[in-house]
Amino acid sequence: MFQGIRQRLRDMGTIKALCQGAERYALRDGQQEPGAEHFLLSALELPDGSARRSFERLQIDPALLPAAIARQHGEALRGIGLNPEALTALDPAPQPAARRLYRASASGQGVMQGLAAGRPGSKEPLLGAHVVVVIAGMRHGVAARALRALGLEPQTLAASAGQEIQASMPS
């Protein structure tokens, strides 16, 4: 019983770190609400290291992800006729989020819902690799396009993350 309570408390700490990191990345991108791409970047920073290893198992340097995401943002702006470089020069410094209930964009909410739905009553710890599995299952959006730009097939990345999850389970 106490083991389950301790695990839930640890998972809550992981979720807190994940959300705070995602918000930091979103603000850096000039967005108030983090999307799936921000949650993925945040997952790469989680201390368990499983998200990073999910990429490294496939010989993909996770440090390439921020640039791939930035390219997707730039391509989206160009697609609607805007020059991303000119807009960057006009953008003021990102403002910290106002104190309020935590809010994420639709894709960010999808990440959190996917984590909750994929682990009902789970006794295993929440890992960065769980976030990778959820995001790899997203077919659309900035995160999905950035992963494809890195040459990652969603099923392959999800399988790699699954291997990380299995490797972390006690024997």
Ranges where pLDDT stays below 50 over 5 or more residues in a row are none
Tally the beta strands. 0
**What is the CATH T-level topology?**
Double Clp-N motif
Structural class: mainly alpha
**Helix-residue proportion:** 55-70%
CATH class type: Mainly Alpha
Described by the principal axes of the CA atoms, the overall outline is globular
Specify the oligomeric state.
Answer: single chain
Tally of separate domains: 1
Mean pLDDT: 87
Order of helices and strands: HHHHHHHHH
Strand content: under 5%
> What is the overall number of helices?
9
Major pleated sheet = none
Radius of gyration: 16 Å
End-to-end Cα distance? 20 Å
CATH architecture: Orthogonal Bundle
List keywords for this structure.
171 residues; mainly alpha; Double Clp-N motif; 0% strand; globular
Can you lay out the helices and strands and say which pair or pack?
Elements: H1 2-28, H2 36-45, H3 50-56, H4 65-79, H5 84-90, H6 106-118, H7 128-136, H8 142-149, H9 154-168
Helix pairs in contact: 1-2, 2-6, 2-7, 2-8, 3-7, 3-9, 4-8, 6-7, 7-9
